[in-house]
Amino acid sequence: MESLQRPVLLILGAGAVGLSLAGKLSGTARVYVACRPAHADAIREQGLAIEGIWGNGTVDGIICVTDSWEVPAGVEFVIVTAKGTDTRAICEEYAEVIRGLPVASLQNGIGNEEIIAEYTDTVVGGTVTTNFSVVGPGHVRVRSESAPMQLGVWSGDGAAAALDRLIGIVRAAGIPVEASDDIRAGKWTKALLNIAVNPLSALLRAPVGAAADDDLREIVAGLIRETFAVAGAEGVRLPWTTADDYLEHLFCVQVPDFAAVYPSMYYDLRLGRRTEIDLLNGYIVRLGERHGIETPYNRCIAGLIRYAGAHPDAR
């Protein structure tokens, strides 16, 4: 009887983030995951292997699905952890499942929640700064945890109640989590670093620390000043009063902290995968057009990434 009372969760687009969450959440919930066939086969055969700060061992009981018809009735929450490039495709594929359910986004970039809101009324936005990685099929590692997960109401009359319920489930599983009273600002705040350094790192084949080079600082400053102008027009309340305030934090704290890191966009470009540029710099360009704000730095960097992605010799 106890197992029947456990909340039922569906995680869509489960890679490193989604599978790690599935492993942890399965302690308090019945978890279904939509993931790649290689992961599904390994998990069905031998369970999910997880290692790192969330514990070491094998997690049984995670149920892998490969199509929407495999998801049973009774799902209480949907959590999307897919790359932003796949948000619309996975929402289309599971549209009949997610319609009417509360859906939470734990994805990089800005704009994913707006897509999800086209498929269901109740949307919860989220940020996660834990370092997850895939070791192999059905095997994930949780390396470090910079801050608690943030979850907040994005849209929907029932989102507040759904948020409280979801936070309770996540917290019961032992995952640090906090409620955010302005998740839009939280999503933009997290995106600032990615907007500033990810495309430069990808194009120059250099780690994040290269952004502090004197030849690149003005480019980074241009990207951020445009982003602040667009955020202001959108009514987004960032933690820093001005772009220059954030740039000081970026160059004094964030770039040194991540100096040796190669962001995911670097690997996406090298491997010929679609990047999330249109949920970062490209998104700033689109919003700038809406508000009549010029964004030449972001327009240039987004165009360069798109070109490099489409031309293997340029990667």
UniProtKB/TrEMBL annotation:
Residue ranges of domain Ketopantoate reductase N-terminal in the record = 10-155
Which biological pathway?
Answer: Cofactor biosynthesis; coenzyme A biosynthesis
Annotated Ketopantoate reductase C-terminal domain residues: 182-306
Xref: Pfam families: ApbA (PF02558), ApbA_C (PF08546)
**Lineage top rank: taxon:** Archaea
InterPro entries attached to this UniProt entry: 6-PGluconate_DH-like_C_sf (IPR008927), 6PGD_dom2 (IPR013328), ApbA (IPR003710), KPA_reductase (IPR013752), KPR-Related (IPR051402), KPR_N (IPR013332), NAD(P)-bd_dom_sf (IPR036291)
Please report the organism this UniProt entry assigns to the protein: Methanoculleus caldifontis
> Known EC number(s)?
1.1.1.169
Q: What UniProt keywords apply to this chain's record, in alphabetical order? A: Coenzyme A biosynthesis, NADP, Oxidoreductase
Spell out the reaction equation it catalyses: (R)-pantoate + NAD(+) = 2-dehydropantoate + NADH + H(+); (R)-pantoate + NADP(+) = 2-dehydropantoate + NADPH + H(+)
Name by which UniProt lists this protein: 2-dehydropantoate 2-reductase
**Function of the molecule:** Catalyzes the NADPH-dependent reduction of ketopantoate into pantoic acid.
Which Gene3D superfamilies does the UniProt record give?
N-(1-d-carboxylethyl)-l-norvaline Dehydrogenase, domain 2, NAD(P)-binding Rossmann-like Domain
